[in-house]
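pipeline: protein-struct stage 2 | run 1193 | Amylo-alpha-1,6-glucosidase
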Amino acid sequence: MLRWRVAVAPGRAVTLRWGVRVEDPEAVVAAPAGGPEWSRPRVEADDARLVRLARQSLDDLESLRLTEAGAPGDTFLGAGVPWFLTLFGRDSIWAARMLLPLGTGLAAGTLRVLARRQGVKVDATSGEAPGKIMHELRRHDYDLETSGLQLPAAYYGTIDATPLWICLLHDAWRWGLPDAEVAALLPALEAALGWLGSDGDADGDGFLEYIDTSGRGLANQGWKDSGDAVRFRDGSRAEPPIALAEVQGYAYEAAVAGAALLEAFGRPGADRWRDYAGTLAERFRERFWVAGGYPALALDRDKRPVDALTSNIGHLLGTGLLTAEEEVRIARTLADPAMSGGFGLRTMSAADAGFSPLSYHCGSVWTHDTAIVISGLARSGHGGVAADLATDLTRGLLAAAEAFGYRLPELHAGDDRTLMGRPVPYPAACRPQAWSAAAAVAILHAATGLYPDVPSGRTILRPLPGAPLGALSVRGLRVAGSPVDVTIDRSGTAQVTGLPAGMEPRPAE
């Protein structure tokens, strides 16, 4: 407690000033100097919720900027407040990927920070393996007696951060990350690709899978990492090793993206990874699709399809793993009210035995999860049901944003929005959270539909058809450092200005 005894004479004023300086020699992350690494676009929209959500989300993203204590030159986003304000491979990568329309600076910092901590040896306790991208970084070992978790300070228990790192590098390159910065990361790219074909597929069946061999780490190592997240439709739990559906999509996309980078920079191995991707797609088609007409959540230790209907399959959209017809089938499946009837996309179908609207991963709605599916629907380029579902999910998130004061939480309950006037909060949700705040930019990107490919000098402009969100203008996007504006009128006609020379947009194929 601080106290001052002050005497103030009549007609006089006294000003007290004090400050605090904290020095933490054990800190592994620190606040960065200077302003954010991304642009702050000016958004105008018929739907004022888009404007308010963008404004609040960009404020929140600034508050989550971090650097490594010993390497202040590279900025990344801490996963969320209050539980995860540190470097998280998966979360930091997804947030940087969603923010690419605002510039490549954050992506570059995130890629470099994670590359410096890329695995170099096999360690069952930490989950480290050569080429693997880490999961989380703490100042000391993490011991949670109530759950049995005992995680080392640098923990690698994630199955998806490595392919997502590759995808981020490729996408940043297409948005204009300078060649010199890409080239400096190619050794890390080659190591990450090597992990896909070795330790990432421990049993050699051609799929990426995980198992916690230490008995003290995370039992589930995809983004749904709670202990009961991987269930069959009857509610029973799957036993590891687990091969998650969406991770195979990430692996396919990473292999194709990695091949493109290797070829563009004159490195060997492109054909190997294109062959890997083609074989993976065939194998996935044979093993994952279930009788209900959708891909299973996962394969269990006996290679049985875990037949729960979940949001995970929405992450396959736009990865290239699926045929056009398969993408439309998934869009139709997710459009069922049992999946899309909440304020966003439910993590599990309301028709499944394991469903609970307040379950962490089995029925709740996660902001970033819904945004990833919206982005995939938009990237897939299919009209009709895909565009309608992207619009419906966006409207669900906008309704949630309004209820939460435009600071979208990590997750909220998956109750039916036709029965509930507003979403029910999840008690322990992070708020703000990086990938939830970044979802606002993902929504704007899906709506405007700007897809540049700087290395090839091509740009596609493919907004959601029919301007389902009304007129929209986003001024101050960034392509190869150039400020770019996209406007869509109420008829759905889109215009883009400011693209670098030679990158005039062309119709989508």
